[in-house]
Predict the structure.
Amino acid sequence: MVRCRQPAAYGEKMKLLLAFCLFVAPSLAHAGDVDPYRGLPYDEARGKILAEGWRPTPDAECYDPAGWRCEAYPEAVSCSGTGLGPCKMIWRHEDGRVMIIIAEQEPMIVAGEGRR
């Protein structure tokens, strides 16, 4: 009988795969929770976010070359002056979770999001 020897790195790869399955994959399962906001006008998504118990996380050092988005959206952290106006919004849930939303264009549309 011929036996194949496993490369020494095989054990390390298995450890990485196990770590991914235990720690990363569960957090990816929650990524779908935010998908309903993607593509929505930000004002519409904002109303739903507030209704679900999320609260704006104001940033006193918000950066916005346009000069009005930081005041209109207390959750805004930074906004670009490129014309597309992508803004980074940070929300905190009453249970301690944090959600980051990227909204872009004028009027702003939810382009991406993530939770931790």
User: Anything to note?
Assistant: Confidence is low (pLDDT under 50) at residues 16-32. Residues 36-115 form one domain. The longest strand covers residues 87-93. Residues 55 and 92 are 5 Å apart (CA to CA).
